[in-house]
Design brief:
Distance between the termini: 53 Å
Order of helices and strands: HHHHHEEEHEHEHEHEHEHEHEEHEHEEEE
Strand order of the largest sheet: 10-9-11-8-7-12-13
Strand content: 15-25%
Number of helices: 14
Largest sheet: 7 strands, parallel
Structural class: alpha/beta
Shape: globular
């Protein structure tokens, strides 16, 4: 097993040559990687089955779903890479040109970051997404998978390396840390001189640890306490569809709804319909019901679990929804300002003034009007796939695609000018 330092040294060396690859060379490599993922589907599924079996006593059913692969999900991974092929190369673009009075021509040119490291948890598809986006944007990636998904990640990386071999590119353009202990994570966080950008993707514990301990540039991603506010003018059927999709379509992901806010003037009509849709109808259909954790006012209208002290500040990643009745759009906005993680928040309303107020004041990476928060995703935003969703403001915000993996430098052309 190679040490983390050896892998970092290999990645640093590879970064010297990747900038010389043409867009066609990168696209050929990506296409070969996608083909090899599909060709090696059986090996990937076998490795994933071992990961799932080992995790059954450690993870709940929702997180097991997050870890699990299927033939359809593997095809989705390959298609995600092919979507990246279709996107323009973000590097080498002249972003701005300035000609100075002394004749100097100053060009601002987009370039790759260099070596991008990623620490993530139990989502194997992140492995292929991160590798594809890194390669297309001219970066070398160093991937550090969580131990729950390490067999799956190794099988996926093995397939992608076969793709690189097919087109004559070095394997070390894609690197997977083999050590899943905390030591390897700490090495990445402090890899000054080796890693140009660190992206943690996972739960609040992982992200907080990286932000607190990293000595290299780090982008805060992922944690999503996402809100949906149902205004008094909302279309009831539309609101129910949005809330169910945002909460129950895939509760283990960061763009899933965790908190529902309901205008007091509509609460008596909306909350019984909500309980029927999320609890009674789902039980009747053999689906997992959503546990409703209710504020005092909501509990006066429907049955559920009394909301605890921390329920409006928790990323449940499960079939749990905190519900609060609010006086108006102003109280909804105030609540979101106090409790949101600035990921994705939505309003369901037919009132254009309230919609405009909500989108102007709510300070999140994605703010929705009459749509599910589940759309905060690189593929849905037309980015091909994503390497993470940034909840900070500097450099990148929201779903991070190719452009967010680039920086720029100034190329200055002269004719002998001296100062």
């Amino acid at each position: 097993m190679r040490t983390t330092k050896e892998i970092l040294e290999s990645a640093k060396e590879a970064a010297k040559s990747i900038s010389l690859l043409t867009e066609q060379m990168k696209n050929d490599a990506l296409s070969a990687m996608a083909d090899e993922i599909e060709a090696n589907a059986d090996a990937i599924l076998e490795a994933n089955a071992a990961d799932v079996e080992a995790a059954k006593t450690k993870l709940n059913s929702v997180m097991i779903d997050r870890l699990s692969l299927s033939p359809e999900r593997i095809k989705g991974m390959a298609d995600g890479i092919r979507d990246v092929v279709k996107l323009p190369d973000p590097t080498g673009k002249v972003l701005k040109t300035v000609v100075r009075p002394n004749g100097l021509v100053i060009k601002k040119v987009s370039v790759a970051m260099g070596v991008v490291a990623m620490i993530y948890e139990s989502r194997p598809n992140v492995t292929s997404d991160a590798a594809a986006l890194s390669l297309k944007s001219g970066n070398v990636c160093v991937l550090r998978s969580g131990k729950e998904a390490i067999r799956s990640s190794e099988a996926i990386v093995c397939a992608m390396k076969k793709g690189l071999q097919r087109v004559g590119l070095p394997e070390n353009l894609i690197n997977l840390i083999e050590d899943t202990s905390r030591d390897s994570a700490n090495e990445l966080m402090t890899a000054v001189g080796y890693v140009d950008l660190l992206i943690p993707r996972g739960g609040v514990g992982l992200i907080s640890s990286c932000v607190a301990n990293a000595k290299i540039p780090c982008i805060q991603t992922g944690t999503g306490i996402c809100h949906v506010f149902v205004d008094e003018s909302a279309d009831i059927d539309m609101a129910l569809n949005i809330v169910e999709n945002a909460k129950a379509s895939r509760p283990s992901v960061c763009n899933a709804e965790e908190v529902l806010l309901v205008h007091e003037n509509i609460a008596d009509r909306f909350l019984p319909a909500l309980k029927k849709r999320l609890v009674d109808d789902r039980i009747a259909a053999g689906k997992t019901p959503v546990e409703l954790r209710l504020c005092k006012r909501a509990a006066e209208i429907i049955d559920g679990t009394p909301a605890g002290e921390n329920d409006f500040d928790t990323e449940f990643l499960n079939y749990i929804l905190a519900v609060k009745v609010v006086k108006n759009v102003h109280e909804a906005i105030e609540h979101i300002g106090l409790h949101s993680t600035h990921h994705s928040d939505a309003i369901v309303t037919e009132n254009k003034e309230n919609a405009a107020l909500f989108t102007a004041i709510v300070d999140s990476a994605a703010v929705y009007v009459n749509a599910s928060t589940r759309y905060t995703d690189g593929g849905e935003f037309g980015l091909g796939c994503e390497i993470g969703i940034s909840t900070q403001k500097l450099h990148a915000r929201g779903p991070m695609g190719l452009e967010e993996l680039t920086t720029y430098k100034y190329v200055v052309e002269g004719k002998g000018q001296i100062r």
